[in-house]
Amino acid sequence: MEQAYWLTRKRESLKSAEAATSSLARLVHYDLAGRYSLKAMSAETVASDLAAALPPAIYARNKAASHD
Known about the structure:
Layout: H1 2-19, H2 23-53, H3 58-66
């Protein structure tokens, strides 16, 4: 969910950069878009690291036991 938020912010910054009337404003919006992209990548990495660190689901063990 956090990744989707940062990607939305990135897209909005890119749109703002295209609509900017000055080169300085365009540069600021492109810079923000890059930062938001990094935040999105970081959020994805944190989520996958957390998923890998969690123990196996209890539900998976109960499901296997119920089929016996």
